[in-house]
Specification:
Blueprint lengths: L4 H28 L8 H11 L2 H11 L21 H27 L5 H18 L3 H6 L1 H26 L3 H19 L3 H17 L7 H19 L2 H7 L8 H41 L10 H23 L5 H25 L1 H5 L6 H15 L4 H10 L2 H18 L4 E4 L28 H11 L3 E4 L9 H19 L1
Parallel strand pairs: 1-2
Keywords: Membrane, Transmembrane, Transmembrane helix
InterPro entries: DUF6056
Length: 504
């Protein structure tokens, strides 16, 4: 913690502000969970797991569709829609948000080893959580759409927990305790690798990075080599699934090596352009309030005594490989659900690299009198980015305040009632009155709608129809477009004025 009086005051005020920002960020997303609904794959996968036993699903999907042996094949069997429980579906999103924020706090508290106060630790966790929600490419797929968050978000949480366990392994002195920790890490690695291709890349490069850094550590080396071998075997099982290559046949532009390398390099550079500005502002606050105190108190911690060039290589190669894998497999850019994972690694990888750099060059900072003015200015920029009208956080508040989320919830509940109680075989249902962007991914379509970006969305209709025991389900008319926040607020204001004039 800073020792100068003005530094101490700034540190105290900043902690309070960041905790308030964290609560401000988390609140609307927790409330929105009460308005969330199953979408798209949730229905078709629920039908699959109702009708087929696990071994049949594993055989069919591993051979003909995907190597994701943990998420799509295994974890989807806890889909709340298998039992038709909308309440549990919503509770799952709430728990996910709590688990995500809790996993950030857990790994930070493990790594910092009580060098930060609980207030400081909470404010740092709030800073990272707010940054993640602020720029998350697609919040709906990140926290509200079961089929995507079970595949992509849960592995992120597992990765943070696994890394905390690996850190505890290094702190253990008893060989039996070390075996327990490395065994848990191996199980976590196997689950992460079997969840999705982006998580596979992160798990592989991270375990490889940790192993390489500690090759000269005779006590840790055999354990880490075991973990690395387990990770490699799991990667082989996931990558060599016949279903992966069968699925690639649906993407004629896939398999182009040179194009994939060039495109992945371009997307790696684009990541800095898209995401770096708010992170830079937060980084200045981090250096002043957290980085320098940590560098002084954990100066003998091996975690941060790593060659900065190796850290940079690990960071860039991981981002490049995540983009490359998808470009090579499909010939396309990563979809928002995949970008969610890339941004997750970009954010946490950036701050790890930043702390390594601070630790390396701490003598320069300690020899310099640091004014809180730059950090205060950076904090102001960060706060302005939090309240900017078109970001994810503001959108969440607009979806609630405008009534979009409530109207969406009401319309879908009415649709479920109709589909359950009607004896129609070919059912026509009303379109949604509004689209709350924060929790919406996709819906069924009308007969008149054409394929979107060349993709026939009637597959969602088929899944919903099968779930409710109908032959066909269609919208009576297309859903309204997703509106930007300013348009939504203007329309909400006009609607309120009309109601007031009618009352008068």
């Amino acid at each position: 913690m800073p020792t100068q009086p003005q530094q101490t005051r700034f540190y105290t005020y900043t902690n309070r502000i960041l905790i308030a920002v964290g609560l401000y960020t988390l609140l609307p997303f927790l409330i929105l969970a009460f308005y969330s609904h199953p979408q798209a794959d949730d229905f078709s996968f629920a039908v699959r797991d109702r009708e087929l036993d696990y071994l049949t699903v594993f055989q069919q999907y591993y051979n003909y569709w995907t190597g994701r042996y943990f998420s799509t094949i295994t974890l989807f069997r806890i889909n709340p829609m298998i039992w038709g429980s909308l309440s549990v579906y919503r509770l799952s999103s709430i728990l996910l948000l709590i688990l995500f924020s809790g996993s950030i706090y857990f790994i930070l508290s493990t790594i910092t080893q009580k060098t930060l106060s609980k207030t400081g630790l909470t404010s740092l966790a709030a800073l990272l959580f707010a940054l993640y929600l602020l720029q998350l490419p697609n919040p709906s797929e990140g926290f509200y759409f079961f089929s995507t968050y079970a595949t992509y978000q849960l592995p992120n949480i597992m990765l943070l927990v696994m890394l905390a366990i690996v850190y505890k392994f290094f702190q253990a002195r008893n060989s039996w305790v070390k075996q327990v920790y490395i065994g848990l890490a191996a199980i976590g690695s196997a689950a992460i690798v079997g969840s999705n291709e982006m998580a596979l890349v992160i798990a592989f490069t991270t375990v490889a990075f940790i192993t390489i850094v500690n090759l000269k550590n005779p006590e840790a080396r055999p354990y880490l080599l075991f973990l690395f071998v387990v990770c490699m075997v799991c990667c082989f099982i996931a990558v060599m699934a016949p279903g992966n290559y069968n699925r690639m046949n649906e993407h004629p532009n896939g398999g182009k090596l040179i194009w994939s390398v060039v495109y992945a390099g371009f997307m790696t550079g684009l990541s800095f352009y898209r995401w770096l500005l708010p992170i830079l502002a937060a980084s200045i606050v981090y250096i002043y309030c957290f980085g320098l105190p940590l560098a002084d108190k954990v100066k003998h911690n091996r975690l941060f005594q790593v060659d900065i060039r190796l850290v940079l290589l690990y960071f860039l190669v991981t981002i490049f490989l995540m983009n490359f894998v998808f470009a090579w497999s499909t010939g396309e850019r990563p979809t928002p659900r995949l970008e969610n994972v890339i941004y997750f690694f970009f954010l946490f990888g950036w701050f790890y690299g930043l702390q390594v750099a601070i630790t390396k060059y701490k003598t320069f900072f300690s020899a310099t009198t640091i004014s809180p003015v730059p950090a205060a200015f950076a904090l102001l920029i960060f706060l302005l980015s939090i309240v900017q009208i078109d970001n994810n956080i503001s959108t969440a508040y607009v979806d609630l305040a405008s009534g979009k989320a409530a109207a969406y919830d009401k319309a879908l509940n009415q649709r479920y009632t109709l589909l359950r109680n009607s004896d129609c075989a070919e059912c026509i249902v009303a379109p949604l009155p509004a689209i709350p962007k924060s929790i919406y991914f996709a819906d069924i379509v009308s007969r008149s709608e054409k394929p979107e970006n060349g993709i026939d969305m009637t597959w969602i209709n088929k899944g919903v129809a099968a779930y409710f025991g109908k032959s066909e389900v269609y919208l009576a008319a297309p859903n309204p477009p997703v509106q930007d926040n300013l348009t939504t607020l203007r329309q909400a204001g006009k609607s309120t004025l009309k109601k007031e004039s009618v009352i008068k």
